[in-house]
Write a structure and sequence with these properties.
Blueprint: E1 2-7, E2 10-15, E3 17-24, H1 28-39, E4 44-48, E5 62-63, H2 65-74, H3 77-83, E6 94-97, E7 104-108, E8 127-128, H4 131-143, E9 148-152, E10 155-161, E11 166-171, E12 177-187, H5 194-198, E13 203-218, E14 231-234, E15 241-245, E16 251-257, H6 261-266, H7 268-276, E17 283-297, E18 305-307, E19 313-314, H8 322-341, H9 353-372, H10 383-394, H11 397-400, E20 455-459, H12 465-477, E21 482-486, E22 497-500, E23 506-510, H13 518-521
Parallel strand pairs: 3-4, 3-12, 4-9, 6-14, 12-18, 20-21
Antiparallel strand pairs: 1-2, 5-8, 6-7, 10-11, 11-12, 13-16, 13-17, 14-15, 15-16, 17-19, 20-22, 22-23
């Protein structure tokens, strides 16, 4: 099949490329979506304008427990940790102080769920690692995945959807354009998303009026008088702000809330000196003015186009959740597209993407905005007050692990209440919609390591073998991949049979496998979607 592609210089006939999934944007969201699709054997084309990953603006620096669990599924958790310049053994603390060379006020050990020891509640602890390192590791991983193509230097300029496909216009490095036909498009193209604009979606929310100014700088001789920390919050003094290491070789980052770009650029060295508490020789690598934005798109999807990551939502960095929420989006839509493409998920399964992700996104935006209410310049030099006001920013497993898809149209059918929680408190629950409670097994492996690529039935030792066999026959007869595990005796939520999705969330629970509604959890009971 051929199709003329027209650019400013004239028209050129080119063969129309056909792909299963086209991913517009190869940042964390796009690369994660490609990794999830590759994990399930679905081919994709990633179109990314940047030819290389820049380290001058590291952006996100905290990879959460939940994201690291997904990285474990894809087989790259160890590679991420090996590439990270700062290990969890080096530090797991956030320290509040009056300057880097001054007095410690208080500290938050185990911040962001950083831990060098194995923790029962999750399969992977968090990892401090700059976003460029994560992107490079994902790029390297995808190079070895069959069916994944990463095209750099090109960008998506238009999408046109019909009942059977999406026609995507791609601008190439030489200024010419070509069309690509895709069954699905993932708009992972960030805050200025072309895909969002093309489907008529718009951000709803607000921006904080206060300016912020980031610096990345080299200061090889800088040696804090305080314990190693992943973040130092400077309270009081001439310039409150945050500062931390990017590596152990003299590269640092700093954030100055309330500082506008012109002043920050002219006085960068003095601003750093104020955080340090003494003059220090610095080499400025990059400066980055920014505004905090609390924005969520009014539409996340059409039938074949899905907004993933910052094309759908933006939140302030306080708490370290933005990048991780983008990965969560990618996993959610990625496994669902794979299920549909392999024939075991109904097309209507895709309609559950927005109902599942929107509440998670909104909670994340709200939490980040709450954290922003008390920045370094708003805090008094009092340990008890800082501990009270900032605890939820550094201990947030309730938000990271405790969210539920319980009201999704493809979860269990009857929403049930889950234990009350807050941002900081994670209470494991085996209710449908929740993340499967994690345990370590006697052989040292994670329960998650034994889940199948499709659905997994976890049954108590006392489960009816004939009912389990009947469910297996039912699944096999309709092409549904079903792995069966006997529930470990150490699993704290005994008694119910559980069906777990590829994203490790519980889709169904009941007293007998014969009652499992496979059609519902895979969208087959919903109205027909394209």
């Amino acid at each position: 099949m051929t199709n003329p592609s027209v650019d400013g210089a004239g028209s050129t006939a080119k063969r129309l490329r056909q792909v299963t999934v086209l991913i517009a944007g190869g940042g964390p969201a796009g690369l994660s979506a490609a990794a999830e699709l590759a994990h399930h054997g679905v081919s994709c084309l990633v179109i990314e304008p940047r030819t290389t990953v820049s380290h001058s603006r590291p952006r996100a620096k905290t990879t959460s427990v939940r994201t690291m669990e997904h990285f474990r599924r894809w087989g790259i958790a160890a590679a991420i940790r090996a590439a990270a310049p700062l290990s969890t053994e080096w530090s797991d603390m956030v320290v509040f102080c009056d300057s880097l060379l001054g007095r410690e006020i208080t500290r938050f050990p185990g911040a962001f769920a950083l831990s060098s020891a194995r923790v029962d509640a999750y399969a992977e602890s968090s990892q401090v690692v700059p976003q460029p390192v994560v992107e490079e590791t994902l790029r390297e991983h995808l190079r070895g995945q069959p069916g994944v193509t990463l095209e750099v230097g090109s960008s998506v300029t238009a999408v046109r959807e019909d009942d059977e496909r999406v026609l995507v216009t791609v601008l190439e490095p030489d200024g010419t354009t070509r069309d690509v036909e895709a069954r699905y498009v993932l708009g992972c193209d960030g805050p200025n998303s072309v895909v969002r604009q093309q489907i008529g979606a718009r951000y709803i929310g607000r921006s904080d009026p206060r300016p912020n100014f980031n610096l990345v700088f080299r200061a090889p001789t800088l040696a804090p008088a305080l314990p190693p920390a992943v973040q130092y919050w400077i309270v009081g003094g001439p310039t409150p702000g945050l500062i931390g290491r990017l590596d152990l070789h003299g590269t640092w980052w700093a954030i100055f809330p309330g500082i506008e770009e012109n002043f920050g650029t002219r006085h960068a060295a003095r601003l750093i000196e104020n955080l340090v508490g003494a003059p220090v020789e610095v080499d400025i690598v990059a400066a980055d003015p920014w505004s905090a934005r609390m924005l969520v798109a009014d539409l996340f999807q059409t039938d074949r186009i899905f907004l993933v990551g910052e094309s759908a939502h933006l939140n302030p960095p306080w708490g370290g959740h933005g990048f991780n929420t983008c990965v969560g989006d990618a996993v959610n839509i990625g496994w669902k597209i794979a299920a549909v493409e392999h024939g075991w998920g109904a097309p209507a399964l895709l309609a559950s993407y927005e109902p599942e992700r929107r509440p998670v996104v909104q909670s994340t935006v709200d939490s980040a905005a709450s954290n922003m209410a008390t920045l370094a310049g708003d805090l008094a030099d009092r340990a008890a007050s800082i501990q009270q006001l900032k605890r939820s920013e550094f201990y947030s497993l309730g938000l990271v692990l405790g969210y539920t898809y319980g009201h999704s149209p493809v979860i269990d059918g009857t929403p049930r209440p889950t234990p009350a929680t807050d941002v900081s408190t994670y209470i494991p629950s085996a209710e449908p919609g929740c993340r499967l409670p994690h345990i370590w097994l006697g052989d040292g492996s994670s329960l998650y390591d034994h889940l199948g690529p499709g659905l997994t039935l976890i049954s108590p030792d006392t489960g009816d073998s004939s009912a389990i066999s009947e469910l297996q026959r039912r699944a096999s007869g309709t092409g549904i991949p079903l792995t069966v595990l006997r529930m470990p005796r150490s699993f704290p939520h005994q008694g119910q049979h559980l069906i777990v999705r590829p994203d490790q969330h519980i889709a169904w629970s009941g007293t007998s496998p014969q009652d499992a509604d496979l059609a519902m959890v895979l969208g087959r009971a919903l109205g027909r979607q394209p």
